[in-house]
Structures are given as C-alpha cells and as structure tokens.
UniProtKB/TrEMBL annotation:
Keywords: Acyltransferase, Transferase. It is an enzyme of class 2 (transferase). Residues 190-200 have a biased composition (Basic and acidic residues). It comes from Jiella mangrovi. Its EC number is 2.3.1.-. Coiled coil: none annotated. This is GNAT family N-acetyltransferase. Residues 1-163 form the N-acetyltransferase domain. PANTHER family: AMINOALKYLPHOSPHONATE N-ACETYLTRANSFERASE-RELATED, AMINOALKYLPHOSPHONATE N-ACETYLTRANSFERASE-RELATED-RELATED. It comes from the Bacteria. It holds the Pfam family Acetyltransf_10. The keyword Transferase applies. Residues 189-208 are annotated as: Disordered. One of its GO terms (molecular function) is acyltransferase activity.
Length: 208
C-alpha cells in the first residue's frame, strides 16, 4: 500500500470512500458506521475540495489499484496540535489493520514534527468508533461539543441527543521518538529481519 498526499484528482474517490465507510446503505456495518444516528451523504465534492485547500488529506492505495482504500484529514490547530477527521476505511477492508496502520503513520510523522497531541471529535453515540480510537491511545478530554444540527452538510440527524466528545492522544517527544527508532534499528541488525508474523503485528495487520 502506497501512502500519498491527496490531490484534486482524488476527490471523487474520496467522496465515495468516506460515504461508503460512514453512511452507505449498501455497505456492511463497520466501526465507522453512523447510519443509526444520521442519514444522507457524509461528505461531498465541495467539502473535500475545501479541506484540501485549507489543510491536508493522506490517502493509501493498494499497489494494484488507484482508488484510495483508507484516508485521513489532518489540520494544524492554533495550539500546534494535529486535528484529525474523516478517517475512513473501505468497508471490505475494515478489520484488517489498514486504518490502524494509517493512523500510526500519521502519529509517527506528527511526533517527528514536534507535535505533542493528536486530537479528534467523535459522536458520543458512535461507541465502536470511540472504542477503536481508545484502543490506539486516545483518551477523552472531558470536553463536549454541540452537534451542528443547523448544518445541512452533515446529513439528516435521526435522533435529538447527538453530541460530540473530544479525544486526544499524547505523542512522545521528538527525541524520544528518535531514540525508539534507533533502538528498533539496532534490534533488527542484531536479530535479523522480522518474519512475516512480526511484520504484520508491527503494521497493525490483523488487528481491529
């Protein structure tokens, strides 16, 4: 799988990917599914175009294809933390560690850039999604955000108690991240290359 910055040519594929992961009536229910809380498109071409113009989106593609399989949106906040959104994995690829591998790559890049926190908001009722993030080091900050009921771009709410909660993940300092990479490199030299099982574990393949 090849990781790249998203470009304007990726917009149709990104719209299809995000909508299938969160709201598609034809998709299998996965850890990003919001269909019990909202209906209608999760995003559209203009929203993705605006996101690309203001910040970054990263996509990964299988070596045999061109359509993105996972994606994630990254915005730099005024507090110098990275704010993540639109992390989506194609429903037929969920449960294979694809999203986890993408998230860990983002965390590595953030740490190497001196970023101390990754931050997200999630719908409080999306228990599977919140549990997925918690399993990867995110913790609730205790802050809540009112759900934007007056914003038609988020879709049509199916319940009147929706609320967003804030989660964050503390990242190691740049020096600590460098030290870990050096230790891992020495271990590989000493022990030899990892077998397929170890490599799959390191990349999160096979995990939820």
């Amino acid at each position: 799988m090849i990781l790249n910055e998203a470009a304007a040519s990726d917009i149709p594929g990104l719209v299809a990917l995000v909508n299938s992961a969160y709201r598609s009536p034809r998709a299998m229910a996965g850890w990003t599914d919001e269909r019990g809380s909202l209906e209608g498109p999760r995003t559209g071409k203009q929203a993705i175009l605006t996101a690309l113009g203001k910040s970054r989106m990263k996509v990964a593609r299988p070596s045999s294809g061109t359509n993105p399989v996972p994606c994630i949106h990254i915005a730099l906040g005024e507090d110098r933390d990275w704010y993540l959104s639109l992390l989506a994995v194609a429903p037929d690829q969920q449960g294979k560690g694809v999203g986890g591998a993408l998230l860990e790559d983002v965390a590595r890049q953030a740490s190497e850039s001196g970023i101390r926190h990754l931050r997200i908001t999630a719908i409080r009722q999306s228990r599977d999604l919140i549990a997925w993030y918690e399993a990867r080091g995110f913790r609730s900050t205790g802050e809540t955000v009112c759900f934007p009921y007056d914003d038609p771009s988020v879709g049509r709410p199916l319940r009147n108690d929706l609320e967003l909660i804030a989660l964050e993940r503390l990242l190691p300092s740049r020096s600590a991240a460098s030290d870990r990479r050096a230790i891992f490199a020495k271990k590989r030299i000493h022990d030899g290359p990892p077998d397929d099982r170890e490599g799959r574990t390191l990349m999160g393949i096979g995990e939820a």
